[in-house]
Design brief:
By secondary structure, this protein is an all-alpha fold. The chain has 2 domains: about 50 residues; about 250 residues, Orthogonal Bundle (MetI-like fold), CATH 1.10.3720.10. It is built from 11 helices and no strands. It is globular.
Length: about 300
């Protein structure tokens, strides 16, 4: 009887191991399918667009002639919009996440806010565009400007930053807080000197995801009135005379890389499609640079914690 039970147990273990192997194989093929598809798309884009990339392509304005068209106004506009988005969404999102996780009382109002923040992360981007059109463009009279676009993308990624900040803070063991309180630290000292340094890596991961989504968004930017063709640059943020900094560029008209690509793809000429592929490569490169900067900052914070 005992031998039969042992044999049954071994059979159950073997069957479960087989299912583990099957699940691992299915997961591996699923991952490879996505990676291979993405690599094929990027390779195809690179083969089409790489010959078009040159210094003139970066320093030329859009044109009716495909061989003379460039992305100067598009990449400058994308960079400025992303600056406004980052300087708006990151401080607000991190501060909101800290408050909800460390300071907010646990009651029905906090639960309602948490549910709404989580649900907002899944709202289609066009809804944010319509909200921004009514609030920023018409109500606050910001017009079709860089600051309106930056604020639109900021509210788009704000729920992602808030949720990732909360999850990163929640992952910090409670013993760290208890040890700080035992040594006489205040609530803010505990958060600033212990909780935030250990949760920085997780927070930056959420920021990377949010900014990567924002840089490729088109629908909300078109909704607030971004131009599809623009042959001038915004005012420079840096001036030669005192106070050496200007904010006039915030009210300038703009275009961004995804809109420029959409404009070229919608044209029937094959040469413009090549320009769109080249612009796509540049957009991917800009995203990688942005992610690399965040990863470097995350590594820097981890190194400081280690020492």
């Amino acid at each position: 009887m005992q031998d039969k039970e042992i044999q049954t147990l071994r059979s159950m273990i073997a069957r479960r191991k087989r299912w583990d192997v099957i699940f691992a194989v299915v997961g591996l093929f699923s991952m490879l399918g996505g990676v291979v598809t993405l690599a094929a798309l990027i390779a195809g884009m690179a083969m089409d667009g790489a010959p078009r990339i040159s210094w003139d392509f970066f320093t030329s304005f859009p044109s009716r002639h495909a061989d003379q068209a460039g992305i100067l106004s598009a990449w400058v506009g994308t960079t400025l919009v992303m600056l406004v988005t980052a300087f708006t969404a990151v401080p607000l999102g991190v501060a909101a996440g800290i408050y909800l996780e460390e300071y907010a009382p646990k009651n029905w109002m906090t639960d309602l806010i948490e549910i709404n923040v989580t649900n907002l992360a899944g709202v289609p981007s066009i809804v944010y565009g319509l909200l921004a059109l009514g609030l920023f463009v018409y109500k606050l009279d910001l017009g079709q400007s860089i600051v309106a676009a930056g604020l639109t993308l900021a509210i788009l990624i704000l729920p992602v930053v808030i949720v990732s900040t909360r999850e990163a803070i929640r992952a910090i063991p409670g013993t760290i807080r208890e040890g700080a309180f035992a040594l006489g630290a205040t609530k803010w000292q505990t958060v600033a000197h212990h909780v935030l340094p250990y949760s920085t890596a997780g927070i930056l991961t959420g920021v990377i995801i949010g900014m990567s989504r924002a840089i490729g968004e088109t629908a909300p930017i078109i909704t607030i009135g971004a131009l599809t063709y623009i042959a001038f640059l915004p005012e420079s943020p840096i001036k030669s005379e005192f106070p050496f900094i200007s904010f006039e560029w915030l009210s300038s008209a703009f275009t961004v890389m995804p809109i420029q690509m959409f404009n070229w793809v919608s044209r029937p000429q094959e040469e413009f499609h090549v320009n769109a592929a080249a612009a796509g490569l540049v957009l991917i490169f800009m995203t990688l640079i942005m992610n690399a900067m965040a990863i470097f900052i995350r590594y820097h914070f981890r190194k400081r914690i280690k020492w």
